[in-house]
């Protein structure tokens, strides 16, 4: 995400078609896998960071879902370009982070790349900084509504809709660089439900919590449409994540809240990002989309 401490969580239960996909038993092996995306793809962490593929400032987890997928499929050539704070622009330009520069993520793609995962869009649409604006000490106040829905016009909804062609173009750019790749567009699992919040554990009013939950659903719906239009496979991580949002107790939640400590694994975490249980769920969803 643009700010690692920002929230980017979302949901919709839609699966777009995958042209040419055969039955699960016929799923072939892969020789070269490239993972692309933002902090939710990197499963941003300060407890188990990895600098194998990116600078430390990307906060990429040593057990993010892409690494789990690569290991489960025994892929011999794997590159993980995911980085906290990434936007679509960082797919094609260097991204400065603490401790170095993450090269343009598309630089990891080659003509022989045959599997790509992409999870991105929350920073681009403005949802991550919008969630930070929701924080309040007064549960009767809804600052997100005041700032982002002036006069009843929802600016985040408009930005989500406007960014759909950019996501479509990004998938098509991947296909130009790696014409034989199976491309999976991954959505964001549920972090805040649409039934309300859990003030004061997460200092957001119920009204704003419901609004955030619905914006997350809109974001994932946009990603599903972009996948269908571009011919990518949509990976639905939201399905199955209900009841595992940041308001749930340790061991149940798959996304951490504002308090920067988790039991999964034990240690400091990046607020409003998947914990290890969330990363494990993402990995299962990707593997299921591949018929594994």
UniProtKB/TrEMBL annotation:
<feature type="signal peptide">
    <location>
        <begin position="1"/>
        <end position="26"/>
    </location>
</feature>
<dbReference type="InterPro" id="IPR036514">
    <property type="entry name" value="SGNH_hydro_sf"/>
</dbReference>
<dbReference type="GO" id="GO:0016787">
    <property type="term" value="F:hydrolase activity"/>
</dbReference>
<dbReference type="InterPro" id="IPR037460">
    <property type="entry name" value="SEST-like"/>
</dbReference>
<protein>
    <submittedName>
        <fullName>SGNH/GDSL hydrolase family protein</fullName>
        <ecNumber>3.1.-.-</ecNumber>
    </submittedName>
</protein>
<keyword id="KW-0378">Hydrolase</keyword>
<feature type="domain" description="SGNH hydrolase-type esterase">
    <location>
        <begin position="35"/>
        <end position="279"/>
    </location>
</feature>
<keyword id="KW-0732">Signal</keyword>
<dbReference type="Pfam" id="PF13472">
    <property type="entry name" value="Lipase_GDSL_2"/>
</dbReference>
<dbReference type="InterPro" id="IPR013830">
    <property type="entry name" value="SGNH_hydro"/>
</dbReference>
